[in-house]
Fold:
Amino acid sequence: MKTAPEFDPPSKGFIPRPAAYTPAGIRAWIREVCSLLDTTPTQLALSAGLAASTLNRFMRSTDPAKNISATTIQNLIQAADNLHDQVGLIRRSQTPLSDDDHGASLTSISVVGRVALGHFSSKYQWDEVSFYEVRIPVPPPYNHLPLFGLEVGDNHANPTFPLGSVVIATSLRSLSRTPVNNERLVVFAVNESDEVETTVREYVESPNNDAWLIALDRKSPDIYLGRDGHLPSGCYIGGKIILSIQPDPSIYGGTTALD
Structure:
């Protein structure tokens, strides 16, 4: 029997990790994450299965030597990732396009990074100051899910998503399932230097149950997943692409990559 593909999000996710694991560094990280997720230390603690009083006491402390355990920190990181999947890093405002509750909603989505073959970065996303918003109609059921946008920075996704496109995606964990045949996905590949490449690929299964993540330009190397659907080490599925914004070809037609 073919086993379910291991398509968990990368450990870094779109939630920043602590810059330092000192007491001051952990407190700063908790404040940053609570701000990004529009939540409180109390809610973060409860989501991590911790006593809220314990975390709030730690946050109020000024003792440079008083830290929380490594296990507690890992539980908080996992809780932050889970909250991200529920509410996203974006603040989406939704305006129904009709009186029909089942119709599309005009949704504001944060563009948080770029996809480009062969471009490796130390982060899965830009610094938040570089985020920008796009406002587009999103059909159900995706208009009720956390969404993020990525710029297409080169020609590796041609012709489906040409240079200058913005792809809009949601995590597969939000959909509570693994990929299905012919879905377009955001794929992360991490090298030995812990740098990440973000690309767009199509999930394809053959009649013999072999699976690939294939390059849309049909020129770049494909990623073979075998019959068990397991991803190679360092490779992660970042999300399913649900729609895209296409560029004006008169602007991007003579360009091969964005700066």
In short: Residues 74 and 118 are 31 Å apart (CA to CA).
